[in-house]
Amino acid sequence: MSPSWANKTANSYAPRPTPDAHAHPHDGAAQAFAHEKLDAYRLACEMAALANALAAPIPRGHRNIADHLTRSASITVLLLAEGANRRGAASKRQRFVESRGECAEVAAAGDLIIAMNIGSRQQAEKLKGLASRVSAMLTGLIVRLQ
């Protein structure tokens, strides 16, 4: 006699996509982490992708700005994820504050790209807009934890 679960098909246990799975970096995958549920995280990933694309063609004499841009964008994403998965409110808040600081550095790098004319002004403006939106979302998360 086989157990009742043995009669189920393999497809009946497949994870169901979230309503907004199309906008998520792991399309259709089950969300295993708290940060994957945050719009701020998805937007920060978009910002990091744009930062990487904008940094790639920056000329050799200004690679320090490109490196700082990609590092700050990456750290914004990583600290946001770390904060979302922390247990205590104070620990969560601290990581979100740090993430917001890194996000400000992304915007400042965008300003340098424009001021020094070392990259696409249009992409730098878009980057600054994304950084502003991520920063505002982080501020909301920080306020909610106070």
**Describe the biggest sheet?**
none
What is the count of β-strands? Answer: 0
Helical element count? 4
Shape: elongated
User: Percent range for helical residues?
Assistant: 55-70%
Q: What is the beta-strand fraction?
A: under 5%
Walk me through this protein's architecture.
There is one protein chain. The chain is an all-alpha fold. It has one domain (33-144): 23S rRNA-intervening sequence (de novo design (two linked rop proteins), Up-down Bundle). Helix content is 62%, strand content 0%. It contains 4 helices and no strands. α2 runs antiparallel to α3. The longest helix is centred in the last third of the chain and has 27 residues, at 89-115. The radius of gyration is 19 Å and the shape is elongated. The model is unreliable at 1-24 (pLDDT under 50).
Write the topology of this structure.
Elements: H1 39-55, H2 63-84, H3 89-115, H4 121-144
Key phrases:
62% helix, 146 residues, de novo design (two linked rop proteins), single chain, mainly alpha, elongated
Short structural summary:
This protein has helices spanning 39-55, 63-84, 89-115, 121-144. It has 146 residues and is mainly alpha-helical. Helix 1 packs antiparallel against helix 2 and helix 1 packs antiparallel against helix 4.
